[in-house]
Amino acid sequence: MSSPPGDGRLMLIILALLAGTWGVLGWMDLAQQARAGFDTDGNNTATRVLAGSSAEAAGLKVGDYITHYDGAPLADASTIAHQPRKKAGDVRRVTVEREGKSVNLRIAYRHLSDHELALARASLIIGYCFLLLPFVAWFRQSNEATRVLVIAGTGLSLAFMGGPYIADFSMRSIALAITSLYVMFGIAALLQFLLVFPHRRPWLNRSFGKKLLYFPAFVLWLLIAYRALFTPLASSGLNTLTRFTAGIIVGAYILVSLFQVLRNYSRTDQAERKACALNGMLLGTVVGLMPVTIAQMVSTFSPQAMLPGQDYYFVTLALIPLTWARSASRPRP
Prior knowledge:
Blueprint lengths: L8 H21 L4 E2 L2 E3 L5 E4 L4 H5 L6 E5 L2 E2 L3 H6 L8 E8 L2 E8 L1 E2 L2 H27 L3 H14 L11 H28 L12 H22 L5 H31 L3 H6 L2 H24 L17 H10 L5
Antiparallel strand pairs: 1-8, 2-3, 4-5, 4-6, 6-7
Protein backbone atom coordinates (compact mmCIF):
# COMPACT_ATOMS: atom_id res chain seq x y z
CA MET A 1 0.00 0.00 0.00
CA SER A 2 1.47 3.35 -0.94
CA SER A 3 2.46 5.80 1.78
CA PRO A 4 0.42 8.97 2.07
CA PRO A 5 2.38 12.17 1.58
CA GLY A 6 3.81 13.81 4.67
CA ASP A 7 3.78 10.68 6.85
CA GLY A 8 7.51 11.07 7.63
CA ARG A 9 8.46 7.67 6.27
CA LEU A 10 12.04 8.61 5.38
CA MET A 11 12.70 10.18 8.78
CA LEU A 12 11.28 7.18 10.62
CA ILE A 13 13.39 4.81 8.53
CA ILE A 14 16.52 6.84 9.34
CA LEU A 15 15.71 6.80 13.07
CA ALA A 16 15.08 3.06 12.93
CA LEU A 17 18.39 2.49 11.14
CA LEU A 18 20.17 4.46 13.85
CA ALA A 19 18.46 2.41 16.54
CA GLY A 20 19.26 -0.84 14.74
CA THR A 21 22.91 0.16 14.33
CA TRP A 22 23.07 1.03 18.02
CA GLY A 23 21.85 -2.46 18.83
CA VAL A 24 24.38 -4.14 16.51
CA LEU A 25 27.22 -2.18 18.09
CA GLY A 26 25.92 -3.17 21.52
CA TRP A 27 25.88 -6.85 20.49
CA MET A 28 29.49 -6.58 19.30
CA ASP A 29 30.48 -4.89 22.57
CA LEU A 30 29.21 -7.71 24.80
CA ALA A 31 32.57 -9.50 24.65
CA GLN A 32 34.24 -6.45 26.20
CA GLN A 33 31.82 -6.04 29.09
CA ALA A 34 32.62 -7.10 32.64
CA ARG A 35 30.52 -7.50 35.77
CA ALA A 36 31.05 -8.15 39.44
CA GLY A 37 27.79 -10.05 39.87
CA PHE A 38 25.54 -7.80 41.96
CA ASP A 39 22.58 -5.47 41.43
CA THR A 40 21.45 -2.38 43.33
CA ASP A 41 18.10 -0.70 43.80
CA GLY A 42 19.10 2.60 42.18
CA ASN A 43 19.89 4.07 45.59
CA ASN A 44 23.17 2.18 46.09
CA THR A 45 21.74 -0.67 48.17
CA ALA A 46 22.67 -4.18 47.03
CA THR A 47 19.47 -6.09 46.26
CA ARG A 48 21.00 -9.15 44.64
CA VAL A 49 24.37 -10.89 44.81
CA LEU A 50 24.78 -13.71 42.30
CA ALA A 51 25.93 -17.06 43.63
CA GLY A 52 29.51 -17.80 42.63
CA SER A 53 30.17 -14.21 41.57
CA SER A 54 33.24 -12.20 42.49
CA ALA A 55 31.01 -9.91 44.55
CA GLU A 56 29.93 -12.88 46.66
CA ALA A 57 33.54 -14.01 46.97
CA ALA A 58 34.52 -10.53 48.18
CA GLY A 59 31.88 -10.65 50.90
CA LEU A 60 29.20 -8.32 49.52
CA LYS A 61 25.77 -9.09 50.98
CA VAL A 62 22.21 -8.19 50.07
CA GLY A 63 21.24 -5.08 52.02
CA ASP A 64 24.73 -3.56 52.03
CA TYR A 65 24.60 0.18 51.36
CA ILE A 66 27.47 1.16 49.06
CA THR A 67 29.00 4.49 50.08
CA HIS A 68 32.33 4.68 48.21
CA TYR A 69 33.73 3.30 45.00
CA ASP A 70 37.51 3.37 44.56
CA GLY A 71 37.67 6.00 47.29
CA ALA A 72 35.10 8.31 45.68
CA PRO A 73 31.72 8.78 47.41
CA LEU A 74 28.89 7.51 45.23
CA ALA A 75 27.08 10.78 45.86
CA ASP A 76 29.80 12.45 43.76
CA ALA A 77 28.07 11.55 40.50
CA SER A 78 30.51 13.52 38.35
CA THR A 79 33.60 11.67 39.63
CA ILE A 80 31.91 8.28 39.36
CA ALA A 81 30.61 9.03 35.85
CA HIS A 82 34.08 10.07 34.65
CA GLN A 83 35.64 6.78 35.72
CA PRO A 84 36.48 4.45 32.81
CA ARG A 85 34.50 1.28 32.24
CA LYS A 86 35.53 -1.73 34.27
CA LYS A 87 37.43 -4.43 32.42
CA ALA A 88 37.77 -8.12 33.19
CA GLY A 89 40.54 -8.48 35.74
CA ASP A 90 40.08 -5.04 37.28
CA VAL A 91 39.77 -4.92 41.07
CA ARG A 92 37.79 -2.11 42.67
CA ARG A 93 37.73 -0.95 46.28
CA VAL A 94 34.16 -0.77 47.53
CA THR A 95 33.07 0.59 50.92
CA VAL A 96 29.68 -0.43 52.30
CA GLU A 97 27.64 0.27 55.39
CA ARG A 98 26.45 -2.88 57.11
CA GLU A 99 24.60 -2.87 60.43
CA GLY A 100 25.97 0.57 61.25
CA LYS A 101 29.56 -0.32 60.48
CA SER A 102 31.79 0.58 57.53
CA VAL A 103 33.18 -2.45 55.66
CA ASN A 104 35.86 -2.31 52.96
CA LEU A 105 35.76 -4.84 50.14
CA ARG A 106 37.88 -5.57 47.08
CA ILE A 107 35.72 -6.78 44.21
CA ALA A 108 37.16 -8.21 41.00
CA TYR A 109 35.40 -7.88 37.64
CA ARG A 110 35.00 -10.79 35.25
CA HIS A 111 33.81 -11.29 31.69
CA LEU A 112 30.08 -11.82 31.39
CA SER A 113 29.08 -15.38 32.23
CA ASP A 114 27.26 -17.56 29.71
CA HIS A 115 24.04 -16.83 31.61
CA GLU A 116 24.59 -13.07 31.46
CA LEU A 117 25.49 -13.22 27.78
CA ALA A 118 22.32 -15.18 27.05
CA LEU A 119 20.22 -12.60 28.90
CA ALA A 120 21.89 -9.71 27.07
CA ARG A 121 21.38 -11.34 23.68
CA ALA A 122 17.77 -12.20 24.46
CA SER A 123 17.19 -8.58 25.42
CA LEU A 124 18.68 -7.39 22.11
CA ILE A 125 16.49 -9.81 20.15
CA ILE A 126 13.38 -8.47 21.90
CA GLY A 127 14.56 -4.97 21.06
CA TYR A 128 14.68 -5.92 17.39
CA CYS A 129 11.16 -7.37 17.68
CA PHE A 130 9.93 -3.97 18.85
CA LEU A 131 11.95 -2.25 16.13
CA LEU A 132 11.14 -4.39 13.07
CA LEU A 133 7.67 -5.88 13.53
CA PRO A 134 5.86 -2.49 13.47
CA PHE A 135 7.56 -1.74 10.16
CA VAL A 136 6.06 -4.92 8.71
CA ALA A 137 2.63 -3.66 9.74
CA TRP A 138 3.35 -0.18 8.37
CA PHE A 139 4.42 -1.42 4.96
CA ARG A 140 1.32 -3.62 4.77
CA GLN A 141 -1.12 -0.96 6.00
CA SER A 142 0.23 2.58 5.82
CA ASN A 143 -1.98 4.65 8.08
CA GLU A 144 -1.84 6.71 11.24
CA ALA A 145 -2.07 3.71 13.57
CA THR A 146 0.83 1.79 12.04
CA ARG A 147 2.95 4.94 11.76
CA VAL A 148 2.48 5.64 15.48
CA LEU A 149 3.26 1.99 16.22
CA VAL A 150 6.55 2.37 14.34
CA ILE A 151 7.40 5.42 16.48
CA ALA A 152 6.59 3.46 19.62
CA GLY A 153 8.55 0.41 18.54
CA THR A 154 11.62 2.42 17.54
CA GLY A 155 11.69 4.15 20.90
CA LEU A 156 10.99 1.08 23.01
CA SER A 157 13.58 -0.98 21.14
CA LEU A 158 16.32 1.06 22.82
CA ALA A 159 15.02 0.05 26.23
CA PHE A 160 16.29 -3.44 25.38
CA MET A 161 19.44 -2.50 23.45
CA GLY A 162 22.39 -1.60 25.63
CA GLY A 163 24.45 -0.03 22.87
CA PRO A 164 28.25 0.23 22.76
CA TYR A 165 30.53 1.76 25.36
CA ILE A 166 31.59 5.34 24.58
CA ALA A 167 34.88 6.29 26.24
CA ASP A 168 34.42 10.07 26.11
CA PHE A 169 32.29 11.19 29.05
CA SER A 170 30.60 14.09 27.22
CA MET A 171 29.62 11.92 24.26
CA ARG A 172 28.48 9.17 26.61
CA SER A 173 26.23 11.62 28.44
CA ILE A 174 24.76 12.96 25.19
CA ALA A 175 24.11 9.41 23.98
CA LEU A 176 22.28 8.60 27.22
CA ALA A 177 20.15 11.74 26.87
CA ILE A 178 19.26 10.87 23.26
CA THR A 179 18.46 7.21 23.89
CA SER A 180 16.34 8.08 26.93
CA LEU A 181 14.41 10.55 24.74
CA TYR A 182 13.77 7.72 22.26
CA VAL A 183 12.51 5.45 25.02
CA MET A 184 10.27 7.95 26.80
CA PHE A 185 8.55 9.08 23.62
CA GLY A 186 8.25 5.43 22.59
CA ILE A 187 6.31 4.71 25.78
CA ALA A 188 3.99 7.66 25.13
CA ALA A 189 3.57 6.66 21.46
CA LEU A 190 2.51 3.18 22.54
CA LEU A 191 -0.43 4.71 24.38
CA GLN A 192 -1.17 6.97 21.40
CA PHE A 193 -1.35 3.88 19.18
CA LEU A 194 -4.07 2.45 21.43
CA LEU A 195 -5.96 5.74 21.15
CA VAL A 196 -6.02 5.60 17.34
CA PHE A 197 -6.44 1.85 16.87
CA PRO A 198 -8.90 0.45 16.04
CA HIS A 199 -10.79 3.77 16.31
CA ARG A 200 -9.37 7.24 16.80
CA ARG A 201 -10.38 9.09 19.96
CA PRO A 202 -11.88 12.51 19.09
CA TRP A 203 -10.07 14.34 21.91
CA LEU A 204 -6.75 13.75 20.13
CA ASN A 205 -7.89 16.37 17.60
CA ARG A 206 -8.04 19.05 20.28
CA SER A 207 -5.13 21.45 20.73
CA PHE A 208 -4.11 19.89 24.05
CA GLY A 209 -4.62 16.26 22.99
CA LYS A 210 -1.15 15.09 22.01
CA LYS A 211 0.52 17.58 24.35
CA LEU A 212 -1.28 16.02 27.31
CA LEU A 213 -0.30 12.58 26.09
CA TYR A 214 3.42 13.29 25.76
CA PHE A 215 3.94 15.83 28.56
CA PRO A 216 4.60 13.32 31.40
CA ALA A 217 7.17 11.49 29.24
CA PHE A 218 8.86 14.80 28.49
CA VAL A 219 9.02 15.71 32.20
CA LEU A 220 10.68 12.40 33.06
CA TRP A 221 13.11 12.81 30.17
CA LEU A 222 14.10 16.25 31.45
CA LEU A 223 14.98 14.72 34.82
CA ILE A 224 17.00 11.91 33.21
CA ALA A 225 18.77 14.29 30.82
CA TYR A 226 19.57 16.70 33.63
CA ARG A 227 21.25 13.94 35.62
CA ALA A 228 23.09 12.61 32.56
CA LEU A 229 24.37 15.94 31.26
CA PHE A 230 25.02 17.87 34.47
CA THR A 231 25.77 15.01 36.92
CA PRO A 232 24.45 16.77 40.05
CA LEU A 233 25.22 15.42 43.51
CA ALA A 234 23.57 11.99 43.60
CA SER A 235 22.05 12.40 47.03
CA SER A 236 19.69 9.83 48.47
CA GLY A 237 16.87 12.35 48.02
CA LEU A 238 17.60 12.85 44.31
CA ASN A 239 17.89 9.09 43.76
CA THR A 240 14.57 8.55 45.52
CA LEU A 241 12.94 11.37 43.53
CA THR A 242 14.18 9.88 40.25
CA ARG A 243 12.97 6.38 41.13
CA PHE A 244 9.62 7.68 42.37
CA THR A 245 9.05 9.91 39.34
CA ALA A 246 10.04 7.17 36.89
CA GLY A 247 7.88 4.62 38.69
CA ILE A 248 4.82 6.86 38.74
CA ILE A 249 5.08 8.07 35.14
CA VAL A 250 6.11 4.79 33.48
CA GLY A 251 3.70 2.85 35.67
CA ALA A 252 0.87 5.20 34.75
CA TYR A 253 1.58 4.80 31.03
CA ILE A 254 1.57 1.01 31.38
CA LEU A 255 -1.63 0.91 33.43
CA VAL A 256 -3.48 3.33 31.14
CA SER A 257 -2.27 1.39 28.10
CA LEU A 258 -3.50 -1.88 29.58
CA PHE A 259 -6.83 -0.24 30.41
CA GLN A 260 -7.06 1.05 26.85
CA VAL A 261 -6.40 -2.43 25.42
CA LEU A 262 -9.29 -3.79 27.50
CA ARG A 263 -11.50 -0.82 26.60
CA ASN A 264 -10.82 -1.19 22.90
CA TYR A 265 -11.65 -4.88 23.11
CA SER A 266 -14.88 -4.35 25.04
CA ARG A 267 -16.12 -1.67 22.62
CA THR A 268 -15.84 -3.78 19.49
CA ASP A 269 -18.19 -6.49 18.31
CA GLN A 270 -17.18 -10.02 17.46
CA ALA A 271 -16.86 -9.30 13.73
CA GLU A 272 -14.46 -6.40 14.28
CA ARG A 273 -12.46 -8.36 16.85
CA LYS A 274 -11.94 -11.08 14.29
CA ALA A 275 -11.16 -8.66 11.46
CA CYS A 276 -8.58 -6.76 13.53
CA ALA A 277 -7.23 -9.82 15.38
CA LEU A 278 -8.07 -8.17 18.69
CA ASN A 279 -8.39 -11.53 20.45
CA GLY A 280 -4.73 -12.24 19.74
CA MET A 281 -3.74 -8.70 20.66
CA LEU A 282 -5.44 -8.98 24.05
CA LEU A 283 -3.94 -12.41 24.71
CA GLY A 284 -0.47 -11.25 23.68
CA THR A 285 -0.72 -8.23 25.96
CA VAL A 286 -1.81 -10.22 29.01
CA VAL A 287 0.66 -13.08 28.52
CA GLY A 288 3.42 -10.64 27.61
CA LEU A 289 3.01 -8.52 30.74
CA MET A 290 1.96 -11.11 33.33
CA PRO A 291 5.36 -12.76 34.08
CA VAL A 292 7.28 -9.50 34.47
CA THR A 293 4.44 -8.00 36.51
CA ILE A 294 4.46 -10.95 38.91
CA ALA A 295 8.26 -10.79 39.19
CA GLN A 296 8.12 -7.04 39.88
CA MET A 297 5.51 -7.50 42.58
CA VAL A 298 7.55 -10.22 44.25
CA SER A 299 10.75 -8.14 44.17
CA THR A 300 8.88 -5.13 45.58
CA PHE A 301 7.63 -6.97 48.64
CA SER A 302 10.53 -9.42 48.99
CA PRO A 303 13.68 -8.08 47.26
CA GLN A 304 15.72 -11.20 48.05
CA ALA A 305 13.16 -13.66 46.66
CA MET A 306 13.77 -15.20 43.23
CA LEU A 307 11.15 -17.08 41.26
CA PRO A 308 12.23 -20.07 39.12
CA GLY A 309 13.56 -18.78 35.78
CA GLN A 310 12.77 -15.18 36.75
CA ASP A 311 15.70 -13.77 34.78
CA TYR A 312 14.01 -14.84 31.55
CA TYR A 313 10.47 -13.66 32.32
CA PHE A 314 10.98 -10.54 30.20
CA VAL A 315 11.19 -12.71 27.05
CA THR A 316 7.38 -12.87 26.94
CA LEU A 317 7.35 -9.13 26.19
CA ALA A 318 8.13 -10.06 22.58
CA LEU A 319 4.48 -11.09 22.29
CA ILE A 320 3.41 -7.44 22.49
CA PRO A 321 5.02 -6.14 19.26
CA LEU A 322 4.21 -9.45 17.56
CA THR A 323 0.47 -9.42 18.29
CA TRP A 324 0.03 -5.64 18.05
CA ALA A 325 1.75 -5.46 14.69
CA ARG A 326 -0.34 -8.39 13.47
CA SER A 327 -3.54 -6.58 14.48
CA ALA A 328 -2.48 -3.24 13.01
CA SER A 329 -1.52 -4.82 9.68
CA ARG A 330 -5.06 -6.14 9.14
CA PRO A 331 -7.30 -4.19 6.73
CA ARG A 332 -9.89 -2.17 8.68
CA PRO A 333 -13.46 -3.46 8.35
